[in-house]
Amino acid sequence: MFSGADLRMVQNQEFCTDLAKMFCDTDAILKGQMEKIVVAFRAANPDFVTGYESNRIIIDPATTTTKITGLVINSADEKPVKDATVTATGTNGQATGVTKSTTTSSTGKYALKPLPPGEYTIKLEAAGFQTVTETQFQTKIGTNNHLDVGMEST
């Protein structure tokens, strides 16, 4: 038998589960209806369709991942650092134990995706530059997880 506090906790968990199912069911219905409208709008309003599709990913409750994006520059001259290795290692939350790496583009930009939300240590390495480590970088679903970094030459 549950005590008062335990019973309330179980009831709260059941309520949250039921509510999440209702949101998912409602989302599926709305998504189905919107997809029909999008087909009709695509030719006449391509900007609307592009905006809808990009925002749909952010607010979709079925989405469970996020990303980290940013720009890596040379601290001395503020020019982009290309081919820098950017590694995210999860240290807390759903991110624990996750490691993902990428390299920067010729413009110094990078994107690490998909990543579960949580806390990461971000390590940046490039030939001729000192290694940079950012700790306790928090990511959340539906937010812009952006980290620009300046690297110092060795």
Kindly summarize this structure in a few lines.
This protein is an alpha+beta fold. It has two helices and seven strands; from the N terminus they run H-H-E-E-E-E-E-E-E.
Describe the structure.
The structure is a single chain. The chain has 154 residues and is α+β, with helices and mostly antiparallel strands. The chain has two domains: 4-59; 66-151, Carboxypeptidase-like, regulatory domain (Immunoglobulin-like). Helix content is 34%, strand content 31%. The chain contains two helices and seven strands. It has helices at residues 4-41, 46-59, and strands spanning 66-74, 85-92, 99-103, 109-115, 118-125, 132-139, 149-151. It has a four-stranded antiparallel beta sheet with strand order 3-2-5-6, with no helix packed on it.
What topology, given as strand order, has the largest sheet? 3-2-5-6
Total number of beta strands? 7
Category by helix and strand content = alpha+beta
- Give Rg in angstroms: 21 Å
The largest pleated sheet is described as: 4 strands, antiparallel
The DSSP helix count reads 2
Mean pLDDT: 84
Instruction: Examine the coordinates and then state which fold CATH places here, giving the name of the CATH topology of the largest domain.
Output: Immunoglobulin-like
> Distance between termini?
65 Å
Helix/strand order: HHEEEEEEE
Q: Please write the CATH class name of the largest domain.
A: Mainly Beta
CATH superfamily of the largest domain: Carboxypeptidase-like, regulatory domain
Residue windows where pLDDT falls under 50 for at least 5 positions: none
Strand content of the residues, in percent? Answer: 25-35%
**In one word, what is the shape?**
flat
Helical percent range?
Answer: 25-40%
CATH-scheme architecture of the largest domain: Sandwich
Structurally, the number of domains stands at: 2
